[in-house]
Specification:
- The chain is of the alpha/beta class.
- The protein has three domains: 245 residues, Purple Acid Phosphatase, chain A, domain 2, CATH 3.60.21; 72 residues; 66 residues, no CATH class.
- Helices cover 31% and strands 24% of the residues.
- The strands form four sheets. A six-stranded mixed β-sheet has the order 4-3-2-1-13-14, covered by helices on one side. The protein has a six-stranded mixed β-sheet with strand order 5-6-7-10-12-11, with no helix packed on it.
- α5 packs parallel to α6 and α8 runs antiparallel to α9.
- The C terminus is likely disordered.
Length: 387
């Protein structure tokens, strides 16, 4: 039989760190990603889709969001096995109960709300047994897959487990939940495949146990997100053949740009130019540069922000160190010339950010009037200070 393994859709997630319009686009992309998953399930002609937890980001998504998510599954008419995770645990009153009351759950969506063996008929009529370990609370300190080992199923049929949690000793710190899962659970429970969720990147635990990762990245973490897994098993006892398939619409890019030289500036500019409409970017600039380089970097950041799908930048740690040539290029005399010297000294003072911003603003004013051949002096200083 053949399966599509996916997890951690986090439908309804709110991206509050970004502009409101961009955040809405990112949230919508998660539902559109479900539509792509349904298309892939049909194209690969799988027997069932295994969704290993955290379908929803919380217990309280908008009702419209619930309806849109289930509607996005319509492109695949085989069974969808949907497991509650730590974000959408099978509480007595949960998002799953709400979805049922709304009549939003399609007939081919199997909600795995109880820890019990389930006989499932695949899209092509073949039968397999699913062993789900749904979370019934957000966190647990016991292994909810323990019961798999004692679960009796008929000989000659595949045993497929679904669980959501952390395999001990395998994942990095900062995982989504502490819910423990034994690393050798597939072997001990005689599973042909164990589909895991909670780790948002694709990761193999052993020959029969995988994390699929989230279908659409939602964090600045380089752990191989944005995929589903196609799992092909020839028969009971056979090792699964697992194929990774890309699904992401957006790439999440974190740029740590350290500026110390002209070469660093050029490399930073190249990295900023590479940001496009498929990029969600977090840019951190630090180091030291002159006034001309600062202006170029500021302009590149503004251009990248306009192009990006979503964008945040931090450059308060980029220290401005204007050269004498920078200051002379401002063509200032009189009071403004004295102010320039004060601002330059202020770069090493109590509020260097204010001094840096003032110098940049002064440079912009100078550029605006420079074509007229005007020199920044006492006569124009009032207008400059007002600006």
């Amino acid at each position: 039989m053949k399966f599509l393994h996916t997890a951690d859709w986090q439908i309804g997630r709110i991206f509050s760190q970004f502009d409101a319009g961009d955040a809405t686009e990112l949230s919508n992309a998660r539902i559109e990603g479900v539509r792509r998953i349904a298309q892939l399930a049909s194209e690969h002609d799988v027997d069932a889709v295994l969704v290993a937890g955290d379908v929803f980001d919380s217990q309280t998504p908008r009702e419209k969001t619930i309806v849109r998510m289930f509607d996005a599954m319509a492109g695949y008419d085989g069974p969808w096995l949907m497991l509650p995770g730590n974000h959408d645990a099978a509480l007595p009153e949960s998002v799953w109960q709400l979805a049922r009351r709304m009549g939003a759950v399609p007939a081919n969506a199997i909600l795995c709300l109880q820890p019990e063996a389930m006989e499932v008929q695949g899209r092509h009529g073949g039968t397999f047994w699913a062993l789900p370990a749904p979370l019934t609370q957000r966190h647990t300190h016991t292994d909810l897959t323990d019961w798999f080992q004692d679960a009796s199923t008929p000989q000659g049929l595949l045993r497929v487990g679904l669980a959501h949690g952390s395999v001990a000793g395998l994942l990095a710190e900062g995982v989504d939940s502490p819910n423990p899962i034994a690393a050798d659970r597939a072997e001990r429970a005689r599973l042909d495949y164990l589909a895991l969720g909670d780790w948002h990147g694709t990761k193999q635990v052993n020959e029969r146990t995988w994390y699929s990762g989230t279908h659409e990245p939602e964090r600045f973490r380089d752990n191989d997100p944005g995929h589903v897994l196609i799992v092909d098993i020839e028969g009971p006892g056979a090792l699964p053949k697992v194929t990774q398939v890309a699904t992401a619409k957006y790439r999440w890019l974190q740029l740590q740009l350290q500026i110390q030289s002209d070469v660093d500036v050029e490399q930073a500019l190249d990295a900023l130019r590479a940001i496009d409409a498929t990029t969600v970017a977090n840019v951190v600039l630090a180091g030291t540069c002159d006034l001309a380089s600062q202006e170029r970097l500021e302009a590149a950041i503004e251009a990248a922000e306009r192009r990006a799908a979503a964008f945040v930048a931090q450059h308060t740690d980029l220290r401005l160190a204007p050269t004498e040539a920078d200051l002379q290029a401002l063509h200032a005399d009189g009071f403004v010339g004295a102010a320039l010297q004060e601002l330059k000294a202020g770069l090493d003072g109590a509020d260097p950010d204010l001094a840096r911003d003032a110098l940049l603003q002064l440079a912009r004013i100078q550029k605006e009037i420079q074509p007229k051949g005007t020199v920044l002096s006492d006569a124009t200083s009032a207008r400059g200070m007002a600006a």
